[in-house]
Specification:
Helix content: 10-25%
Shape: elongated
Radius of gyration: 19 Å
Structural class: alpha+beta
Strand order of the largest sheet: 2-1-5-4-3
Number of helices: 2
Distance between the termini: 39 Å
Oligomer: single chain
Order of helices and strands: EEHEEEEHEE
Strand content: 35-45%
Amino acid sequence: MTYRVEYNGGDLEVTTLDAALDNAKNAIASDLGPISGWSVEHDESINDWFVQGVINGEPVGPTAVISGPETMVAPVAAPQHPARTIDGWVQCLSFSGPTAVEAFAAATNWLNARASVINVTDVSWSNGRLRVYFTDGS
């Protein structure tokens, strides 16, 4: 399991959250110069950390994003959000896994078990999550 640090178009993978936070802070300080403090926020819903430099009590410069390893409570094949049946509307379902291949496999298995899915309109991969957009005819 690794943590991914993204800052100013670059990214780095490290093995611990402490190392990820240190690398994010170092990248920001290298970019902006002396920093008087740090703003670190954690979004539990997507398990991402947001790090920004603070000078004189105000956040400055770009934000570094740290994506943490996903907590796997259910098997990978289970979608993260229950599907809703909304005739003709585009819906979105998210899948996650330790790797993109496993998330795509989970999505494929879920779609194969749903004869009512008429069309997959789009897919996206971001921060360790695969989102599948589809229309359902049921």
